[in-house]
Amino acid sequence: TMQPRLKLAADLAKADLVTEMVGEFPELQGLMGYYYASALGSDVAEAIRDQYKPAGPNDDLPSNEVGVLVSLADKADALFGFFAHNMKPTGSKDPFALRRAALGTIRIIVENNLRISLTSLFSAVDWERLYDSKGADYSDPTEEIVAFLIDRLKVQQREAGVRHDLIDAVFALGGEDDLVRLLARVKALQAFMASDDGANLLAGYK
Fold it and tell me: How does the average pLDDT of the chain come out, rounded?
């Protein structure tokens, strides 16, 4: 039942970019789309408004399911397109705000408890339609994007105060691209190491 609303929101998501209002005031992108689309129903209008959320670590997430999926697709599309053409962040330079897109993707997935394989998310792209038909040069960026997102998640967890050795221990297992399950393992290991059994195991190992 949600699919037609999702397609409508996705089809109209960038329509306000060609309006004179957004041309004059670029900061109104999304917000103007919300007003233009409000006659189509609140979920579609809110999805268009929320597609750029979260814009930062303290920004709200999209307010409904349609908005969550449109925002996730928008960020995944940006990451895929720039990485495919080797336009990745380097050092402190990130002109296309891909780190922000990565952190937004992580927040949307984790805070909505979305059980999704990152590899499947990015490997589902229709190469023929996007690139081959236009003769564009590209390389498959899926593995690189997944590694980039995992690295961003590590940084986020360290900044949240999680011990780096616990993070490294869980992430060293490899072969895991379900962010919700990764964080559940980190929390489980953290809880175990804080228990008497964990302390005894660590003392015995040392």
Answer: 89
